[in-house]
Design goal:
Elements lengths: L7 E5 L9 H7 L2 H6 L3 E6 L10 E4 L5 H16 L3 H24 L8 H15 L4 E6 L3 H13 L3 E5 L13 H16 L2 E4 L2 H10 L7 E3 L20 E6 L9 H13 L1 H5 L1 E6 L5 H8 L7 E5 L11 H11 L2 E5 L13 H8 L3 E6 L2 H9 L3 E5 L6 H21 L13 H13 L2
Parallel strand pairs: 1-2, 1-4, 2-3, 4-5, 5-6, 6-7, 8-9, 8-11, 9-10, 11-12, 12-13
Helix pairs in contact: 3-4, 5-6, 9-15
Amino acid sequence: MKTKSRQRWLIIAHAFNMDGRAASQTITDKLPHLRQSGIEIVVLSGVSGTQDKTFEHHQLWPAGPAGIRFELRHVLRRRFGKGFVYRCLMTLASLCLLPGMLVEKLLRPVESSWSWWLSAYLKGWALARRQPFDLIYSTGGAFAAHLAGRALKRTTGTPWLAEVHDPFVTPGNTPRTAQDKMQARVERQICREADVAIWFTEQALASACARHPQLGARGKMMLPGTDSPFQTLPPYVPGPKFIIGHFGSLSATRNLSVIVGALEHLQAQRPELVTATELHVYGGPLDLVSSEKIASSPVSACIRHFGRVEADPISGLSGREKILRHMRAVDVLLLLHGEDPICEEYIPSKLYEYLWVQRPILATVHRNPQMADILRRQGHVAIQTGGSGQSSQSATEELAMALAVLFDRWRTFGLPDSRQASPYTTQAAVTRLTGWVENM
């Protein structure tokens, strides 16, 4: 390795500078700290995010037609919105790309971004020929980044650091689909060939080591964290209603049924509590499970869905900045972990933002002691789900009891800020990461 002040890193991240995307925030937030460490940074990303003006940033289209169509959706939507022009252009592009997409899906039926690895590899190789790199740093997210990182290590001999966001292999599952088998293959390549391989939870690292013992000490665990999003914390002003805020995406395995069930439980026991309560939901569209549950629920009147919050060209605030201000305005932050087996090895990045917002957090945590411990150490409430002998009804009742306690505190004494600075910062993550690189 060169001296710290002369290091030159190639960062391969398919998602980069994408407002509100966790896979983007995890790497983009690190770059100012890496630069302060004296590291020259070159970034290869997809074209869905915005061009970075601070670092050398190359935006690359994927090589395959399915990936081109996927990226084109984001590019056209950013330029034309979702109106008539966007729909016309996407229809025309889809018709042109359809024959190639059909062939691609027959030969490689995996996520559409897979072919981006070839574009990233070719560009990275050309850049390395002009001026060598000290480190290849693949991060994702999309497994294409790691395929490119491995290929560049083999071609150039440059050390390779792979940062795995969500585990590639679901706990307890044998890979059966083409997508699952590809992800298992990428994990195997990382464990065998990466000079440093990072996972974001203790259990994810332990599982990877169990599947691939040769990983050994090259495997690391790092909590990505996030730095304080506020220079000055916006004031929290309680209102006449008890506001519970949920922020983030929903799915069939991470849905609102448990919180709606808790409100229904309280409706039968304490109707005055539900009358004074509103659940505000921010993020993408409601999943089918949540929609059906709300439609048939007697507490549907207290649930308000605001959808995805976009950037505001008038104020100049990004979607992320606007969401953070909404977080500050609620009485309680709701964090739903989900019920998928992958939750055992996954901590939502939203947790780290929630901690900085300093409002009380009420979370469901599925078989993840590390996540529950993080919350409780900071004085928040974690309702564990999926335990041995535990039914979904018992988790709903626990959640209802916790809500009742928070409501009574809010009505009687108020719910002040925690006033605790989060110890889980991007700066701390970068310090650990650069330390591992120096010791390679």
